[in-house]
Amino acid sequence: MKTLRDRFKAFTLIETLMATVIATILAGSITSFFLSMVMGKQDFLEKQELEYNSSFVIQRIQSEIKESQSINEETSTFDISPGILSLSKSNPLDDPTTISTDNGQLLLTRGSQNPLALTTDKVLVNDLTFNFQSPNNSPGILSGTLTLETIDTNSQSKTENFSISLRVNNP
């Protein structure tokens, strides 16, 4: 003889609650895993953006300095941030060439041309300092510090130090 319980095969309340708890824990773990993957990718992209900007800026500053005739010490700002570097160029259209910051962007201005942004809109320049040492009538040493920070939520920052030896043509 079959009892009432045998005729109705169903889950009990405790079994249903246990299944719900296990499903919730599993869903939370999967969501957490995917969120960490997305955040890891975002961190990687921010670091990549900082690396790209810092490498490009340092190479561009070095190139501009090497192409210059001399440093305009009177119109440059050294040892404080934000620094300004003014360079004398042989081409009158490019003279003077200045490297400066404005609203967190690193700018290159050649002569009377419009400023050209050297950094992307995803990074801010927090610090730009130039140091120049030139013993009497000898080649000078230009060094500096550049600090970039991402604008994204994690606000990662990267500090680049650079040092360049260059010949200074004294007038």
Q: Could you name the key traits of this structure?
A:
171 residues, alpha+beta, five-stranded antiparallel sheet, three-stranded antiparallel sheet, 8 strands, 30% strand
Care to describe what's here?
With 171 residues, the protein is α+β, with helices and mostly antiparallel strands. It has one domain. Helices cover 35% and strands 30% of the residues. It contains 2 helices and 8 strands; from the N terminus they run H-H-E-E-E-E-E-E-E-E. It has helices at 4-7, 13-67; strands at 70-71, 85-88, 97-102, 105-110, 116-117, 123-133, 140-150, 157-166. Strands 1-2-3-4-5 form a 5-stranded antiparallel β-sheet, covered by helices on one side. Strands 6-7-8 form a 3-stranded antiparallel β-sheet, covered by helices on one side. A hairpin with a 2-residue loop joins strand 3 (97-102) and strand 4 (105-110). The longest helix has 55 residues, at 13-67. It starts with a helix and ends in a 5-residue tail after the last strand. The model has no long low-confidence stretch (mean pLDDT 80).
